[in-house]
Amino acid sequence: MSEYLDRSMDIGEFVPQPDDDIIICRCEEITKGEIRRAVHMGFWTLTEIKRATRVGMGMCQGSTCQRSVKAIVAKELGISPNQLEDIIARPPMRAIKFDAYGEEVEKK
Hints:
With 108 residues, this protein is mostly helical. It is built from 3 helices and 2 strands.
């Protein structure tokens, strides 16, 4: 894996493709076009793409879409998917009512 991507390389302008409306991240409903557009805006690592688009932030934490996202980003950059680091998975957070902490379960 390459440690650094050459940020000075020109990847060209974003050119829409007929399949840009395909949903890649089902959890967050992120399309191929949104991922491709983010790459052309300068977000080149999967962590940057995640922060820019929310791809990989759903319930599966990227386990179903990561391979596709890597392939899309690598193709746009003209590199091998192996040169990209994986999406870092984190447990999903959910809001919880404060009074839930004070409730006790009745033992029988």
